[in-house]
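Hi W.,

Here's what went into the run:
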Amino acid sequence: MASPQAESWLLSALIALPAIGALIVALTPKAAAGLHRWLGIGFSLATFAGSLPLIGGVGRASALRFEQQLPWIPSFGISYHVGIDGLSLWLVILTTFLTPVALLGSWRGISERVKEFNVFMLLLEAGMLGVFCALDLFLFYVFWEAMLIPMYFLIGIWGHERRIYAAVKFFLYTMAGSVLMLVAFIVLYAESGVASFDLLELTGKPVGPELQMWLFGAFALAFAIKVPMFPFHTWLPDAHVEAPTAGSVILAGVLLKMGGYGFLRLAIPLFPNASAAYAPLIGILAVVGILYGALVSLVQTDLKKLVAYSSVAHLGFVMLGIAALTPTSVVGSVYQMLNHGVSTGALFLLVGMLYERRHTRSIAEFGGLRAPMPRFTAVFLLISFSSMAVPGFNGFVGEFLILVGSWPFSAPLTVLASLGVVLAAAYMLWMIQRVFYGEVTQEANARLADLSLREGAVLLPLAALALFMGLASPLFTRAIEPSVTSMIRQVNAQQREQPPVVAEHVPERR
Amino acid sequence: VSDALELRPALPALIVAGTGLALLLVQAFSPRGLARSSPGIAILGLGGALWATVAVSAVLPSRVGLAGVLYLDAFAAFFHVLILCCGIVAFLLSPAYLEATGGARGEYYALVCFSIVGMLGLVSARELISLFVALEIMSVSLYALVGFQRDRLTALEAALKYFVTGAFASAFLLYGVAFLYGASGSTSLVRISRALARPEGDLALMALVGTGLLLVGFGFKIASVPFHMWAPDVYQGAPTPVTGFMAAAVKVAALGAMIQVLGGALGGLAVDWRAALALLALLTMVIGNLGALAQENVKRMLAFSSIAHAGYLLTALVAPLPDAATAVLFYLVGYAAVSLAGFGTLAALATQGREPSTLEDLSGLASRRPWLAAGLTLVLISLTGVPISAGFVGKFFLFRAAVEGGYTILAVVGVLTSVLSAYYYLRVVVAMYMRPAQGEDTWGPISPAAGIGLAASVAVVLILGLYPGPVLELAREAALTIR
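Here's what came out:
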């Protein structure tokens, strides 16, 4: 094992590596597209390799590991503080894993302005890693917002027809959600009396219950838009459909996870009382999201839109587990975030490959693809099984844990949510039937090429993970469990300390 | 007073004034060759003033001033450095622009120098009459500069508008000074502060009227709503480097004086003027941003955006002094850099009498001038207040001050209008990066001097966004010297 000194620098090195890569790509000559691609892949793979020791390092500890704290703006209690535990470990790995996959997946699809593409992808990776590692509210916000910019460019430059509309909508929507959280940070700093933006110090001293309600509301808005929770999801179909494949993969795979992660890392520990008060509302919206997402997916005629709306449903499960806040349900939520990253990431890649061949994503344009593309069909089926939570695949583990864990929270909501599992099978299978089975209806589809070697290499790790995470889930959950349990224990203890939230008398604060 | 003949606090301003006079003489008597060296002489002069500022403020006790009127304490020194740096960047940007638009005359540099003299006086005056004189020195030079391209109708219209509204503002200010004198019996800021620490009855009313009039005068100068109507026309009509210089340095100097007067001398009346200021801030943020939303011309859009930023700056002033002043001082550094870089980018592209003004003019700039486009993008990001930029850190501290001052609502309106502003700033980014370039690349080459000026400004924006600590400490030290 490395020395503690080296260990404390590992996360910073991981955040810096893609950023340095972006700088190097930016300084290379414009024409060398091949070089840019290799540098992009190289730096993201190096980051992935560098992130692997984290798995062993976190182990089964419930405390934060790989912590590093350096003064940044000391006079205002702002520090550069990073660290990870079981909540963030796999999300960090997911990020470092999906970035090279997405880059390799767009090797052919992105042929213009390759240099800028790699710069933005690497910057995006640095920002995402920062969000998952930050333990200081100011630092968290810096990464959280800074990340919008590369994503905005990815959608706006390399997207499809309505890319500019989608990019601006994405940016404004998410920024509008986050800025109130910034004000909430400031109010929290002013009212808590710890004179620090450090997450650990602030969680130790919750503010009064009435104020918690306001602040939690501001946090929840930011995170709910990111998740996205019904009814804040309207930016998602536009952004997903218009984004290039790599953008959709990262958007669905990692960015959406930041919402759920934000609830678990910030909103719930900081505002234990308010989170209990808001839980029923979040639970209801989550289940509405599950059913709404599934029903809307059912009627989609566009493959990418179908996958996008299915995300709304899948993330509804995640939010249900978070609202229930039992150890089982939250472990399930974290696991489901990973599953969704793998399966939806893969689905977007698959849809992207179809689009590269036929330049359409309309389900009606396809049919009988099984004959010309047997290997492609096999992978698609496998990933779909993961997405619709067939036992043996990763999706099953996550949704099962969430449903079991949510039963004590609310039996009716759990029953309704399990309907979503059935609906997921319906929209996925129906889509598969229309796209892959039956006769080849269009001349153009008869001669479609099957998976190339590169495409196989992109999909293989994802497909293997979908199976592996389904069969060997304890290998993953055992790192998640201790942190989740200790977080919930702390929240419960603080809920008992504070009087319950009843707004009978609001004391004058100033 | 024992320090009556202490000239050192005025040394930087004297050097700049001397430079201005020298420039006029060179222009009048030298052969063509030497006249072309005007920008070089001007930059040397400002560099000398910069050196004098640092040297004098290091040795001079902060309580020693010129006749109890001009001081070079940490506060004044902070603003001196900032204003002089703005001047240097403006001088770096100007030669190529004047060449391209056909107005290269030496008095341009002299006028900028004289306006800087006024600004330096404005931030170091601790007495209302000299403050007024400094304000007039600054303004009169600027009236002439705005109308510098005298063959253009828009320039003349702008100059006239600026002059008329500016004269009104001065009158308001002077009237306010009279009332304050009546209420306190002095024009010295320290004495006013002592006399009006706990005003009562008629005196309090008189002081309040005076404060209100002063607010109007300053409101004009920093272009806060409802005294902002001149700004879009003037910013559009003035030579673009001057616009950048005005957006940066005038706002800096006027806010410096405003902090001294409101926070320092009239601190005792804070309960009374705070609510009015909060209302001004709120209106300025909302109306500035809404106005910018409707603009097609980039220069006008930036003009409205500078109105909006006056609003953000005012939000902090509702807080107790050290916090408020620290936040404002820090924000001004980033804002000055952003204004100079923003207008400077437009100026740097000028060629053969034209410069980019619409979004179409900037279409596809990223593919032709990748570094220029990247720099302008960072500037727009900073104006929006998104990390990693000076604008984000700056707004964070402004709104933090507003919350500490008990006006959380101002912070909420501030961040929401920032979202609104993202829309119009992003339109420029969309044009540069997401729209194809149209036709031939007809814009001029970027001169090395302009390149240096822009790069330095953008570097400041980035460094303040990543590592704001040192400048924040300087701002804090400066804020603590306000009496």
